UniProtKB/TrEMBL annotation:
Residues 11-235 form the GmrSD restriction endonucleases N-terminal domain. It comes from the Bacteria. Residues 425-545 form the GmrSD restriction endonucleases C-terminal domain. Pfam families: GmrSD_C, GmrSD_N. This is DUF262 domain-containing protein.
């Protein structure tokens, strides 16, 4: 393998006429997070006046006019984002200096497809070109103020870039404002970026060698996800078998879009759990390499495209056409119930809407009983979901009854559920909302007041701050206020205005408000003459029995 190694800076890297550094199809979209952007900014401003080593940039150059960036795209993209912000500041302060930077972003006399000196992957190319690379006075330059009005799929894929531009601007503008000479400060940071950041460029001749280096860099600790590696592996396999790399890259982009912002590695792991008993995050890439070898690229990608659409519906239930299925998915979302996704993936491809709704509801009930209330071992629960998933993936609808029995057998008993429920306190707000809204809908299924979460709130019957009247009413039990105030037996739902009015009023005055409420949980409190620790215990036991009936296998 012939490898060229050279020490360089951005001035030399972007200064080659009619050359375009290109992000190849098998690279992931721009993904740097705030922590990495912050580190880059501080590295630059804290080493002004001296050089700073930025690491290696690996290029693959079968076409000398379009060398592909194998490693370094995240750093280069972020540096160019900052450079463009500096150019835009020149536009405001001294426009005749804009061209000094723009010459390193744009090839003045090149063909249209080589117009710019840096081209991100397809996911980021249009936003990067239209909002970043175009000169401020270019008619095709789009107003940054409109960038968050992009279509949702394009916004999702470019959100990190958008956030990081705003983050860098949030550093640059105050830094200039704090300078005695902002224009001089701009020129200083421009000079630092162009000549003071040093890189080692490693240039390899072809995609096969690029693939080797890509995996080698990962073995040395480069932060590549299983999704990044799998995409790379699929595209390298396609290239070796003379399949269309571009078409496969488009299919991969479709998979990413279908996930609706869901994590690609988590999706791949849940997909594998429909077939493999145990899959750790670090196992995902190795297992998929075996899948590629045994099934081939095209069949595997076709299946991933289908499953990604189902998975995206777990992330965004509003995409589900069937109302009943959509409501269950929304409940699973509320519970953060991701462990059942492997079973739901298998069910989604095997069952019709009615059967899918019932199976998804079983997953909701089991997750609620097993994890939310009884706090049992999550690894065991995932094992049950895997077993059900494997049955459905293997047998299809014919395995539905067997899959259901596997999940039903995992459910905690009624006695275990009720005992655990009776011990619960406030905890996570979304859990309390889920439970009390579920109970309310059971008690009053026709009531419409709960449609707006902004109008209905959690009310502490015994208030969080005890007034003198409450202390006198509780007597010696007032010392145990902190132990009981957040117990579920002391909570109810109440409309926003009534909730504000109730506040820490004495119980007798609260009763009048509870009677006015249209919410059944609040109305039922009218049966109590007074309120204290015994009543909290008794009501929580009552709620436990109701919940056992609602969330029953």
């Amino acid at each position: 393998m012939i490898i060229n190694v050279d020490k360089t800076n951005l001035n030399k890297l972007l200064g080659v006429p009619n050359r375009q550094l290109t992000i190849p199809a098998y690279q992931r979209p721009y993904a740097w997070e705030a922590e990495q952007v912050d580190e880059l900014w501080h590295d630059i401003v804290e080493t002004l006046g001296s050089n700073h080593f930025m690491g290696s940039v690996v290029l693959c150059s079968p076409d000398q006019a379009r060398p592909e960036v194998i490693d370094g795209q995240q750093r280069l993209t972020t540096i160019i984002l900052l450079l463009a912000l500096i150019r835009d500041e020149y536009q405001l302060r001294k426009p005749d200096l804009v061209g000094r930077i723009q010459q390193f972003l744009q090839n003045a006399y090149a063909e249209p497809d080589l117009r710019f000196k840096f081209r991100p992957g397809n996911a980021n190319a249009r936003v990067f070109t239209d909002f970043i690379l175009c000169a401020p006075d270019d008619d095709s330059r789009r107003d940054w103020a409109t960038v968050r009005q992009l279509a949702s799929h394009e916004l999702n894929r470019n959100l990190r870039m958008i956030e990081n531009v705003e983050r860098l601007k949030g550093y640059l503008v105050p830094w200039l404002a704090a300078s005695d000479n902002p224009l001089q400060a701009l020129e200083q940071i421009e000079r630092k970026i162009m000549t003071g950041l040093e890189f080692v460029v490693i240039d390899v001749p072809d995609i096969a060698n690029a693939f080797i280096i890509f995996e080698t860099l990962n073995d040395r600790g480069l932060a590549l996800s299983a999704g990044d590696l799998l995409k790379n592996h699929l595209l390298a396999a396609a290239a070796k078998s003379s399949e269309s790399v571009e078409a496969l890259a488009a299919d991969w982009d479709m998979i990413i879009d279908s996930l609706e912002g869901g994590d690609i590695t988590r999706f791949l792991r849940h997909y594998l759990l429909t077939q493999h008993a145990q899959v750790q995050k670090d196992d995902v890439f190795a297992l998929f390499k075996k899948e590629v070898g045994s099934r081939g690229v095209k069949p595997l990608v076709k299946d991933l495209k289908l499953m990604a659409r189902f998975y995206g519906q777990f992330i965004k239930p509003e995409l589900v056409a069937d109302k009943a299925v959509r409501e269950v998915y929304q409940n699973l979302n509320t519970l953060r119930a991701t462990m059942c996704y492997s079973a739901l993936l298998a069910a989604s491809s095997a069952l019709d809407n009615d059967a899918l709704r019932d199976f998804a509801r079983l997953c909701e009930v089991l997750t609620f009983r097993y994890s939310t209330i009884c706090s049992k071992d999550s690894k065991e629960l995932e094992r049950f979901y895997h077993q059900a998933a494997k049955v459905l993936a293997t047998k299809g609808v014919a395995g539905l009854e067997e899959a259901r029995k596997i999940l039903e057998a995992a459910s905690p008993s009624s006695e275990e559920f009720v005992l655990a429920f009776r011990q619960q306190s406030m905890g996570r707000q979304y859990i309390v909302n889920y439970i009390f809204r579920g109970i309310e809908n059971h008690l009053s299924p026709e009531e419409k007041t709960l449609l707006s979460t902004q109008q209905v709130h959690i009310e502490h019957i015994m208030p969080q701050t005890l007034s003198l009247a409450w202390r006198e009413a509780l007597g010696e039990d007032a010392d145990q206020h902190e132990l009981f105030v957040n117990r579920w037996g002391n909570l109810t739902l109440l409309g926003g205005k009534l909730n504000i009015t109730a506040s820490n009023q004495p119980f007798a005055e609260k009763l009048a408000l509870y009677r006015q409420s249209k919410i059944a949980l609040a109305q039922a409190l009218a049966a109590y003459e007074d309120w204290g620790l015994p009543q909290i215990e008794a009501r929580q036991a009552q709620l436990a029995q109701i919940a056992e009936g609602i969330w029953r296998i």
